[in-house]
Amino acid sequence: MADISKRLYRFPPRFAPEWGSGGIFGLKFYRGTLFFNLAFEGEAHFLDEEREKVYNYDLVGPKPVSGGDTYNAVDVVDDFIYFGGWVHAPALYLREGDRRIISFVNKYSHVHEYNVKEGNVRLVWKEGINHPTDWTGEVSEIVYDPVNDVLLVARADGHKNLGVFLLERKGGKIVQLTNEPALKGTIFLDSAFFDISYLGYFRGLQFMDLFDRRWSKMYLEDFSKVSVDYGNVIRPFVGSMISAYARLFTFVKGGVLVAEPSLFDKDSIKFVRLFDFGYSGYSPSRTMAITFGGGLLTAFNSFTHGLVFPQNELEKNVMREQNTIIGPSLLIYITPPMARVVGAFGARITSIETVGDKILLGTSTVANLARFDAMPIDAGYREIVVLDNRIIFERQPPVSFVLPTSLVSTLNWGGIPLYGYKDACLTIYSSSGNRLYVYEYDLSLPVKECEKAVYEIKEGKNILSLKDFKKIVSFKLEKEDTHGTININLN
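Above: the chain sequence. Below: its structure as tokens.
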């Protein structure tokens, strides 16, 4: 790995037609090979001690290509790395008056196989619908089914052919198993679990017994019914899914859902609010969750989705919400009952991997933008950051959040882990008198409900020391304040 790390470098903007910036996705170190997808350039990189191979998706279609993967769809089996996503081949960048757009007639979803022994890439499957504005469901997750020796493919981002599909590894035959859109998935005990998502927002879980292939589904429309602080979640965009401690963890914008094995029992699923800033775009989406030291390592990103060329008043409001950067992206380590901040970084952490005593982070400086924000290049600077894994056990970095009260309204917000911080302070600049509810809880298993405190807020500057709180804290303003500001400082 020492030799490979010397060949990691920053990727500046290059020709890559799409919306804003992609990132470095699918980081996977397997049997001496480091794999990652560079999006939007449509480059799959394979580095080992002897060579560096770059595959440009020429098996999908002719150049110029763009895309690759923007959800971390990768899994490993035997001597093979399976990677999926979507590719424009060839990419068509167009202008219609003031609008900058991408044509989708050549957009394909794909799954490839890389043989780590032979250094060869094989196209397992591709699919397109040849439409100028719509596309077939992107591959956003690949889960290997070890019982039936097949790949389970999740697809939710698209217009047709959404759901979970069975893909044969050798012949490439694909069969739809469920038509409920699924963005992420994982193996949990003896079943394959996937979310149910619409427009990317979490709406439930669907899962298949690996032995009898029987499907079950559970829907969740109101997070307040399962939340430890009794509050709902705005736009719970699905982030990543992983199992540990004989529980299922599903990260969404606003926090994490923790499911017990008996999903249909009362209280079998709980929502723990983490880094929820209301209408802000702060989110754990388009990143990874991995295991490390028996715990879970994931990220919450400050600028995951954005918009820079609004076409109407609605899009102008969305731009104000999504483009408001309220704090750094954070690397979070979860070892129940604790969730600890272990690193603070820039706009996005798109991928995570551990190799020996190192942690690798794929990063990008720009969000995935909106449809009419299309441009002929990837607008971000992307790089692989190599960290010593000692950061997991060292003192937390100082962190500051600044957000307008208009972004949180009267919603529950926050979910700030205070573990390890000696000095934590909340300052509210209020335009009128108000009342602040503070909820304290942890990530103990099974998940327990919170404890509550109430504070009076006067017009002007209010300083609340959080020294008396030792766990995770979330908040709620009793009355809406459209002109206030909130500042949280952790030291």
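Residues 313-322 form the longest helix (10 residues).
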